């Protein structure tokens, strides 16, 4: 009933968004039904333990759950377990009610506990939203141990790397009293531990599955950037929620120079202008990973893997555009509207369209930039790099239609293309010059010249011998 009321309200207040949602619900087909009988061998739906894991996936992340379930073959089940393992690790790290002396050994041995039959944990605070996942973690352990050895090894390796970084940061906050990240480099390292490693693990799984190129697992810098784009977007958007729960991820290098002593001062002091400049710096820092994310997406060949990676990336760009120069972000947790999310899901089907989406939101960000912002020039350059990436890879004057490739007549580059085509056509009509001989023709001429030289040499030698011999 609530959903019907919401849709009716949307029809009256935002009719175009209502139409988008109706189109999405009617025409966006589910690519795969993991509950179908023929999917049981790869989805594991015939096992009670795996059904519970799919339920946990829905409980912990509805947005990721939808795209994970549409991955091909056993990738869906593998990524489901990968996500739940890292979600369990993150739940322990985020819980401020767990004493450091308990948290440290648990974090640093989480990869061992993940394959220890029967292990679970009930020591989270009562308000921790994903507490139940750890209470029933023995179910996750059972399913992780059922994974193919190559997938299991990757998941445990990434878990071990991530737990070390999380434990180090948690210990620093608990023992030194420093709850802030000081520099952008430290911020990058933290995001690498909590998100860049996720991208590395996913990339290695894509390669191990055979659904992507075997060399893709070596593109770790691009995979890291993909993870950092998503993580930094979430950190920027969740500012108010994180500060209220005493989780401080914004680096002091960005915000302390404007005179704020604490992060909460950004919304308590009333200095909106400087708060906007800090927010601009955070968006700028996230945008420097956008072109790497596009490069990564261009390498993907499997459609389900591409969609899995492309949708969150497009959502991230939309979220950055929403947050940029938006003072409401400091007052509440803001999100893109459902209709916009639905539109992005329907469009994120190929790399050209995704690049176009990136360009559209880069233009929105640039349009909202203010010259008095100290980051104005760097924001303009970051947006320009996205424009340049699109033009280099998918020139905007090239038009794709059912009849083939055409060119936009109003674009000056079309005249250059026409001139090149005319020159190429004229070159085809000209008779071939000597420099354009075929290899066998050249060999014939060389052999003939060589024979003439040999003949002349023999003739001269014969004449000299005959003349002087007499």
What is the gist of this entry?
The protein has helices at 2-13, 15-27, 40-43, 48-60, 62-69, 75-94, 100-108, 110-113, 131-135, 137-144, 149-176, 184-209, 220-237, 239-244, 252-255, 265-268, 272-287, 290-299, 303-323, 338-347, 351-368, 376-393, 412-429, 439-469; strands spanning 398-401, 404-407. By secondary structure, it is mainly α.
Q: Which strand order do you get reading across the main beta sheet? A: 1-2
Structural class: mainly alpha
Q: H/E element string? A: HHHHHHHHHHHHHHHHHHHHHHEEHH
**Which percent range fits the helix content?**
55-70%
| pLDDT < 50 stretches | none
What coarse outline follows from CA principal-axis ratios? globular
Strand content: under 5%
Describe this protein's structure.
The chain is globular. It has helices spanning 2-13, 15-27, 40-43, 48-60, 62-69, 75-94, 100-108, 110-113, 131-135, 137-144, 149-176, 184-209, 220-237, 239-244, 252-255, 265-268, 272-287, 290-299, 303-323, 338-347, 351-368, 376-393, 412-429, 439-469, and strands spanning 398-401, 404-407. The chain is built from 24 helices and two strands. With 470 residues, it is mainly alpha-helical. The model has no long low-confidence stretch (mean pLDDT 88). The protein has a two-stranded antiparallel ribbon.
């Amino acid at each position: 009933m609530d959903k019907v009321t919401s849709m009716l309200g949307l029809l009256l207040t935002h009719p175009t968004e209502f139409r988008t949602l109706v189109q999405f619900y009617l025409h966006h087909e589910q690519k795969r039904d993991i509950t179908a009988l023929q999917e049981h061998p790869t989805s594991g739906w015939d096992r009670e333990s795996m059904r519970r894991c799919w339920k946990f996936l829905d409980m912990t992340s509805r947005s990721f759950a939808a795209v994970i379930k549409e991955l091909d073959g056993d990738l869906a089940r593998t990524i489901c377990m990968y996500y739940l393992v890292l979600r369990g690790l993150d739940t322990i790290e985020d819980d401020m009610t767990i004493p450091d002396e308990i948290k440290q050994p648990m974090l640093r041995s989480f990869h061992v506990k993940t394959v220890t039959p029967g292990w679970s944990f009930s020591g989270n605070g009562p308000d921790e939203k994903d507490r139940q996942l750890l209470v029933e973690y023995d179910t996750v352990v059972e399913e992780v141990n059922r994974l193919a050895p190559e997938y299991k090894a990757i998941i445990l390796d990434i878990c071990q790397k991530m737990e070390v970084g999380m434990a180090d940061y948690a210990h620093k906050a608990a023992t030194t009293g420093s709850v802030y990240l000081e520099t952008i480099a430290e911020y990058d390292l933290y995001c690498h531990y909590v998100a860049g490693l996720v991208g590395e693990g996913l990339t290695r799984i894509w390669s191990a599955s055979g659904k992507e190129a075997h060399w893709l697992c070596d593109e770790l810098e691009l995979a890291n950037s993909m993870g950092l784009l998503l993580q930094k977007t979430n950190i920027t958007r969740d500012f108010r929620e994180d500060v209220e729960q005493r989780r401080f991820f914004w680096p002091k290098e960005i915000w302390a120079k404007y005179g704020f002593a604490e992060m909460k001062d950004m919304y308590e002091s009333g200095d909106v202008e400087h708060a906007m400049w800090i927010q601009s710096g955070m968006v700028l820092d996230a945008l420097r990973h956008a072109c790497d994310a596009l490069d990564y997406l261009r390498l993907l060949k499997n459609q389900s893997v591409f969609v899995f990676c492309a949708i969150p990336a497009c959502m991230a760009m939309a979220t950055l555009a929403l947050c940029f120069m938006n003072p409401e972000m400091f007052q509440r947790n803001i999100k893109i509207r459902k209709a916009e999310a639905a539109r992005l899901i329907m469009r994120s089907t190929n790399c050209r369209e995704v690049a176009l989406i990136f360009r559209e939101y880069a233009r929105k960000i640039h349009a909202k930039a203010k010259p008095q912002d100290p980051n104005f020039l760097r924001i303009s350059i970051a947006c320009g790099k996205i424009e340049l990436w699109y033009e280099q890879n998918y020139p905007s004057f090239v038009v794709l239609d059912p009849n083939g490739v055409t060119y936009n007549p109003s674009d000056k580059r079309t005249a250059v293309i026409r001139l090149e085509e005319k020159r190429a056509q004229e070159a085809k009509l000209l008779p071939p010059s000597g420099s354009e001989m075929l290899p066998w023709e050249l060999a014939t001429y060389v052999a003939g010249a060589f024979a003439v030289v040999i003949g002349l040499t023999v003739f001269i030698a014969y004449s000299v011998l005959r003349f002087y011999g007499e």
